[in-house]
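The passage that follows is intended for readers who have already worked through the single-chain material. We present the inputs for a multi-component assembly, then the predicted structure in tokenized form, and finally a short commentary. You are encouraged to pause after the input and sketch how you expect the pieces to fit together before reading on.
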Amino acid sequence: MTEYFDPAKYEGWVCADCNIPLQLSKVDVSYLGNSFPVDLLKCPNCGLVLIPEELALGKMAEVEKALEDK
Amino acid sequence: MDQKQLREQENRCIQEQAPACTAACPAHVDARGMAAEIAKGDFTAALKLYRKAVPFPGIISRICDQPCKTACSRKDFGGSIEMAALERAALEFGALADEPVKRLPKKSKTVAVIGGGISGLTVAHDLARKGWGVVIFEAGDRLGGGLWKSPPDLLPRDVLVNDLKIIEELEIEVRLNMSVGGSGANGHGTFLGRLSEEFDAIFLGVGPHSSEIPDLQMNDNGQIAIDPLTFQTSNEKVFAGGDVLRVSTLHPNRELKHSAILSISDGRRAAVSIDRYLQKVSLTASRVNEGSYETKLYTNTSQTISQTPLLETDLSTRYNIEVAETEAARCIQCECLECVKVCPYLEHYKGYPKKYIRETYNNLAIVMGTRHSNQFINTCALCGLCAEVCPTDVNMGEVCHEARSTMVDQKRMPPSAHDFALRDMAFSNGEKFALAHSAPGLDSASYVFFPGCQLSGSSPEYVEKSYSFLRETFNNDVGLMLRCCGAPADWAARKDLFAQSQAEFYAEHEKLGKPKVILSCSSCYQMFQKHYPDVEIVSFWDVMNEHGKFTKKEFAAPITIHDPCSTRYESHIHDSIRDIITKMGGEIQELPLSREKTECCSFGGVMWLANRPVAEKMVQRRISESELDYVTYCAMCRDFFARKGKRTLHIFDYIFGEEKSDLAAAPAVGFSQRHENRARLKEKLLRDLWSETMPDSGAFESIRLVLPEDVEKQVEDRLILVEDMQKVIEYAERTGKRMLNNSTKHFLAYFKPNSVTYWVEYTKNDDGSFLVYKAYSHRMEVGIGASK
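Having made your guess, compare it with the prediction:
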């Protein structure tokens, strides 16, 4: 889903707990029993994941709606 | 309501019924469609429609007796549409493609058509196009029968001859000078008998001359006896139609009233029977509305303005293009759409109930694939205005509610559709708001006031004041019950959640000694009517009207009343509200749609959650119906109108409000504030009236938020509550699970307190409060195990 947000825009974010920059990696996102591996910014140490606002309100909302009507 | 009743609702919608003109025309010419095409200048499209119903258009357009005109809805508004003149214009200015007549492949069976008049020619035409072999037997020396008796200036002979060319094109064999009737000589059978052996079926369209047809039974009037549905005679392979049906052996000289269009219709209907007879299928199955009939279509002409044709018109009048277009534009274009005209929701989806109900079934039947009507089903406000204005009482609210119920049973209700409203209900029935007490100092109650959750959310001070008024009125013997009536669960068709809420109510009601319930919210009133038949209820407004002491108020101008849609059939409440306003000195100007015809503000059925663009149209329509200040008696109607900038008062603003402040312009109360107001109301009432304290707060409630105005608007719009954001920050601060932006020093954290994950970007202020920059949410789950 990196095409739905710009990872460069989130370069300044670090995991506050681990003090490590977030890195793009494959993360499972799922809804109503459907799962998709997507590239998201994630703390390589503790696994904290960042969902950008434009992804949550854009593609994710769209997929949620589509899956709810399936 | 079950599937059968849904079907029954679908069948009751009359929008697809034929217009009066088409129903009255025995050949069912689509006069409405033709007029629409001509009005926009498309004479060719009109001609196609005409040709479809009438095989001999030139002839009929010149001699038709136009039964459509007696049925036309325009009749009393300047005169019926001059249909035959428009038909002639279609022939003159339209053009059919120069291509051979379409016909099915030739079949082996053959039909004898006796009589070359218009009914026989129609039968021959229709059956030849179906591929059957056809032979016409005509007593005279040319085809056309009685048509040749029409005055030539009315029916020019070239028109007649030209229209009949199609018989030749269809390769129909014509045997002229062949008279039928009488018995065969020299021991031969009758002519009919002999044809029966040679042909597979026979059509008798012998016109007014043959009064003696042997071998066939006659009826009591001396006419050939036929089955009125199939045109079949007493001989199963012989069918009859046209003028022969209208001559009588008992009155051979009685002048025959000839109707060419009726003969066409007879011919068409007989041809259908003969075709079915030859195919050996049922002659009678699915044969409805053949010939002239009265349509069930309702057309509202209350706004129709009288308009006469440009030209005085008879069967010899010729229109030019402009006159024809003007005449066609006079057509009312009959249709019902009474419900669609008053409901922006039904209008939005560009259909009408019959179509919508069909789509709804189809939607519910989908096993694999996308259910495109889910949003349609969840958008309905369930307000019942459609049924109120419908000539046949079709209620889309009942249909959509039933469909929601099926979706819940099928586990196919989109989880997001009603979630927010159901969580609001859970809040109101939780410890922050729910309360049931007899009056201070009493152990039981004769009455209990049930103000509902939304008035408590919008104007908690009015709940306090109205509760005081009730205790004064009923000698203090009024308890108080704060909770939700269950409307969100009913609208979501969540029977389980409704039953749970209902059980909680009954338990508390029992403890109070089963008092009469005084309801100020119209949605609560509706829910109690529907789901609590054994509980005695009273409208607060009826009590107020009877016992209230009203003082004259300052009314700068007349006001108008918006009745909440849930009061639709509670005329006693409508009356009480109007009485109260009048007693306070208000002058009322009614909206065009009020009382039983009132409209929904878009809160009903959770339309506002399911479909914001439609909800917007709904509320805009309502607030633009009058320039005057609106007065209503539902907290949600008031806030929904106020949110869109319409000056609106709750009637409590007059009764209990500060007279000096401009309450009509007061802003709507946001969702977070509604929770806050409910909780504070409970806390205050507990403390002031019963000397009790609220249960302990959750840890998250100590998180103090600072929301800049734009953020406050953003979270309201995104349905994110203060308590959701408090939970995110409390979790992040407690666990350290948060992200930090090194340049802005903002934190970003998330938490999933329910089915939704909330995100908050924030910084901590020196005073310990948290400044919020943005908040957003999603329902998808993230991370390890998300797929489980």
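Commentary: The radius of gyration of chain B is 37 Å. Confidence is low (pLDDT under 50) at residues 183-188 of chain B. How closely did your sketch match?
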